[in-house]
Design goal:
Elements (H helix, E strand, L loop, with lengths): L1 H14 L2 E14 L7 E14 L5 E3 L4 E6 L2 E7 L5 E9 L4 E9 L6 E12 L2
Antiparallel strand pairs: 1-2, 1-8, 2-3, 4-5, 5-6, 6-7, 7-8
Keywords: Signal
């Protein structure tokens, strides 16, 4: 019974869709063409729509397949047959008004590398 109640609570929370407008991403990046040196980077002018909705979760603009893997976390991936792979994580912290974004890129030669950004929750979707 306890396991059933735990599953029910988790499923109910994951089943309720949440949507956030994300912006002002700032942090660090590293790329192969820069010798994997860590440098400050960001996406200050872009806005993203992050929808938490189980297997139908998404981040827009983005063409990756995304899955909700926690109550407020997305895992997005684009894996191609030629070895090009991009993996992103998005973790939303509504009570703090923040989002954490990570990205790992492999198979793209000089663009291989990664990102770690912190952004702002600008609002919710209407």
């Amino acid at each position: 019974m306890r396991l059933f109640l735990t599953f029910l609570v988790l499923f109910t929370h994951l089943a309720s869709a949440e949507c956030y407008v994300i912006g002002d991403l700032k942090g660090y990046a590293t790329r192969a063409h820069e010798g994997y040196q860590i440098s400050e980077d960001g996406i200050s002018s872009g806005k993203f729509i992050l929808e938490l909705n189980g297997k139908s979760s998404s981040i827009t603009p983005n063409n990756m397949k995304c899955d909700q893997v926690g109550s407020t976390t997305l895992l997005c991936q684009d894996v191609r047959a030629d070895g090009e792979t991009t993996i992103e994580t998005w973790a939303v912290y509504p009570s703090a008004g923040k989002v954490l974004f990570t990205k790992s890129i492999t198979g793209y030669g000089s663009f291989n590398g990664g990102n770690l950004f912190v952004g702002e929750i600008k609002g919710t979707c209407d």
